[in-house]
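call fold(seq) -> C-alpha cells
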Amino acid sequence: MGNVAKPVSIGAGGLDLLMPMHLRLDAQGAVAGCGPTLRKLFPDSPLRRGFFDLFEVRRPAGVATLAALAARTGTRLHLATRDGVNVSLRGIATPMHEGRGLLLNLSFGISVLEAVRRYGLTDGDFAATDLTVELLYLVEAKTAVTEELHRLNRRLEEARRAAEEEALTDTLTGLRNRRALDQALDAAISARQPFGLMHLDLDFFKQVNDTLGHPAGDHVLRTVANILTQETRSGDTVARVGGDEFMMIFPGVADAARLQKVAQRMIAGVAKPIPFEGRPCRVSASIGMTLSELYDRPERERMLADSDAALYSAKRAGRGVAVMRQPRGQS
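ret:
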C-alpha cells in the first residue's frame, strides 16, 4: 500500500510566524483569519468580510468567485486591494483540510518599497526566511551609496570649480590674473562683438615700496583694485597682470570717447592720496587703450601690443594720462 499523507495541524500563531501575510478563507469565502502584516493594510478588521470585497484578482483573468479561486489553487495570483488601499500583491492559494476553505500566502512583490514606506513596516513584519528583508537592505545600501556618491561628486565639482577659480585669481587683489585676462580676451574676440581694451600702469609705485615698504605697496595695489572695480561694470574683466600693471576688457564698447571717460575717472581716483598707517601714498595711473573696431580681424597679441605701446606713449606724455592707440597697418 502507498503512503498516505497525514494532515499537518498548525495553529494561528504558527501561521502568523511562518506566513505573516497569509489569509484564511472559510467555505463561504469570508476572511476567517489573516497574518499580522496583512492586517496593517486594513485599518478596519478584514475578518468576516468577503475575500472579493477586499481583493481583486487581476491575473489570471476571470477569477471572481470562490469556486474560480479554488480552481486556481497552485497558480500564481496577481491581486490588487480595494477600499483605497491600492497595493499590488502576489500570492498562491491552497485548499485547507477537509474542505474547510482556502489558505492564501501573499507577498508585496515589486510594491514592497511603497508598502514599507506607507505602513512603516520593519523586518519583523516579514517571515524570517523571506528574502524581501535582504532586498530592502540592498536597496537601502544602494540608496545610501548613491546619495554619498552624489554628495562626493558635488564636493569634487565644487573643489574643481574652486581650484579653477583660484587658478584664475590674483591672490593679492582678488582680481582676475593674466591667465584669466587672456581667456577673456580670446572669448571677446571669438564673440565678434565690439570691445575695448585698456592697459593701466601705476606711476611712482616704486617710490612707495622704497619709502614705506612692501606692506604699503600691497595696500596701494588693493586700493587701486577697488577703484578699478568701482569704475567698471559687472560684465567687464579687471585683471592684475604684473606687479603694478592692470588690464581691463569692456565688452560692447566701440566708442573711443566713452572709453576715454572711463579712463579719466580711473586716473582721477588713483591720483587721490592713499593713507597707510598715517602716511599718504601718492601714485598716478598711465593708461593705454585700443578698440576691437579698429581692426579688420582683431588678434589677441596684436591688441595687447598696441595697448602696451599706447601705455608707453602715455608715460612719455607726462604720465597720469590716457592714450588711444591707432593700429599700424590694416590687414
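The radius of gyration is 41 Å.
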